[in-house]
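Q: What residues go here?
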């Protein structure tokens, strides 16, 4: 069985990212630090995969990640080459983006969201070593990215950009490891809430004292972002409910959450080109970004266009996950499809493992139902 609460968090994170990019409202980054939440959820899934499969999980994660990027590249790389981007060996980074792939002037903005895949790729590659360290020294491994970021931000260590990214978002990834191990859930309220409050206050003070060009936008403040997001993740994952039964009572809401989860990468990759393309067009017809009606129209248009491209290309995510391709995910599941579903669906909740399994000093909680381990599918 899937953990629908985690699915709901991912759904909210994706929707928040799209709305933020259309509206530019900095407040949204504080209310829901979506990118850190997405990295935390990915870290939890990665830890579950490593527990089951060991280092082989890296290849499976890359298989899930890269095909959707390649579809995007097939469309945009030729367009950028035809509009002035020089041909060079760096174009191959569009196949495996361990660094920012090249782009021309308009492509750099429309495809700026590729940084997420770059960081995700590095985090996946680093995960076997990080997981080995985490099982032996959980607390120290959790703290390491945040200590690295503090050293960078206060000027002690002038690190290269890739290490700054590890300091910023790998801490959220490691909190996903802790979630998988059950460490966050086992924290008593008298510990979890004061720690979360201290992180939020410290992060908030740093944000207020170091405003960026967009004001109090988390994206302009690495250390404030990391601390504020850590507090948020501690609460939403550490006090995660056992389930979200109300979601299943609404067929529309349940299907929407399923569709967005099954097409999260496609939605993420394609929404920004539409945001960039629509901005001058809607300005011409008078739908100002300063007008609430104009903003609402922009949001609706972007979601509509993303819906169209998701219908066209979203099936690639099914193929990458070795599922039967579907035009709109979430229909009735046939018995013959079970072998094609992702690991998280076959094995149960990503933070549920057989009783007695341990991660260093962290005991992994038992599964609620042994039957959910065996046949419900994987990827």
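A:
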């Amino acid at each position: 069985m899937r953990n629908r609460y985690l699915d709901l968090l991912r759904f909210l994170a994706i929707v928040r990212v799209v709305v933020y990019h259309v509206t530019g409202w900095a407040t949204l980054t504080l209310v829901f630090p979506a990118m850190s939440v997405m990295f935390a959820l990915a870290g939890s899934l990665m830890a579950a995969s490593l527990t089951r499969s060991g280092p082989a999980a890296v290849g499976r994660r890359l298989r899930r990640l890269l095909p959707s990027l390649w579809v995007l590249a097939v469309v945009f790389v030729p367009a950028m080459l035809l509009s002035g981007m020089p041909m060079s060996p760096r174009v191959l980074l569009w196949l495996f983006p361990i660094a920012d792939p090249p782009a021309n002037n308009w492509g750099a903005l429309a495809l700026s969201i590729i940084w997420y895949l770059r960081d995700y790729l590095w985090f996946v590659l680093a995960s076997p070593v990080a997981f080995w360290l985490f099982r032996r020294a959980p607390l120290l491994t959790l703290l390491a990215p945040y200590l690295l970021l503090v050293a960078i931000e206060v000027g002690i260590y002038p690190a290269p950009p890739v290490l700054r990214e590890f300091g910023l978002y790998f801490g959220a990834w490691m909190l996903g490891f802790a979630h998988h191990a059950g460490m966050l859930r086992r924290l008593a309220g008298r510990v979890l809430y004061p720690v979360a409050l201290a992180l939020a206050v410290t992060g908030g003070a740093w944000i207020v004292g170091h405003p960026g060009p967009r004001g109090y936008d988390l994206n302009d403040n690495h250390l404030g972002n990391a601390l504020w997001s850590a507090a948020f993740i501690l609460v939403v994952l550490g006090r995660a409910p056992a389930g979200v039964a109300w979601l299943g009572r609404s067929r529309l809401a349940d299907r929407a959450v399923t569709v967005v989860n099954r097409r999260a990468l496609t939605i993420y990759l394609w929404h920004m080109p539409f945001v960039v393309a629509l901005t001058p067009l809607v300005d011409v017809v008078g739908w100002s970004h300063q007008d609430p009606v104009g903003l609402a129209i922009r949001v609706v248009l972007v979601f509509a266009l993303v819906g169209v491209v998701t219908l066209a290309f979203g099936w690639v995510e099914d193929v990458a996950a070795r599922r039967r391709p579907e035009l709109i995910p979430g229909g009735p599941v046939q018995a013959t499809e079970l072998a094609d579903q992702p690991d998280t669906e076959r094995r149960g909740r990503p933070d549920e493992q057989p009783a007695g399994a341990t991660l260093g000093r962290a005991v992994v909680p038992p599964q609620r139902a042994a039957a959910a381990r065996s046949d419900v599918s994987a990827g």
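A: Context that may help when evaluating the design: Residues 334-379 have pLDDT under 50 and may be disordered. The longest strand covers residues 358-359.
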